[in-house]
Design goal:
Layout lengths: L1 H4 L6 H22 L1 H8 L9 E9 L2 E12 L2 E6 L10 E3 L4 E8 L4 E7 L4 E6 H4 L13
Antiparallel strand pairs: 1-2, 1-7, 2-3, 3-4, 5-6, 6-7
């Protein structure tokens, strides 16, 4: 009886391996980009209600988030989140405006990008300027760059 089920046991291997690898990679990217460090200070466990722009592209540290960021904010601070499949290791953040520094704007062929330094470790965040435009009244002035 055991010999008949043993050859099919390997079929379960990808079902366990693929989600496990996805989880491991998500946590590693969170650490590599600086999201994990920011989450220790600015994690948003509940609340929200921020006006947001979805499917925003950007970079945090060494990690590129193509079309999977949600960016928003109000008087409380800058709201950042990833799409639901990538939330593992990337909890939503609410970063107070006082902890956002050194705003720079650069233009590429088709879009403009705003770059900031976040938190005490000065984690670099680069997002599409169109996502931060509604937040201009809260953000630091753009410096040349």
């Amino acid at each position: 009886m055991f010999s008949q089920s043993a050859p099919h046991a390997w079929l379960w291997f990808p079902i366990v391996l693929i989600p496990g690898m996805f989880m491991l990679i998500s946590f590693f990217l969170s650490w590599l980009g600086g999201w994990r460090g920011l989450a220790q200070l600015y994690r948003l466990d509940r609340g929200g209600g921020f006006p947001c722009k979805h499917l925003v592209s950007g970079d945090m540290g060494w990690v590129e988030y193509r079309g999977c960021l949600t960016v928003g904010g109000d008087e409380r601070g800058l709201y950042l989140a990833t799409l639901l499949p990538f939330r593992l290791g990337h909890p939503p953040l609410c970063i107070p405006w006082s902890d956002i520094r050194d705003r720079r704007r650069k233009r590429s062929f088709f879009t403009s990008w705003d770059t900031f330094e976040l938190g005490p470790d000065r984690v670099k965040l680069r997002v599409q300027s169109s996502a931060t435009a509604p937040l201009d009244c809260y953000l630091p002035e753009v410096s040349s760059g």
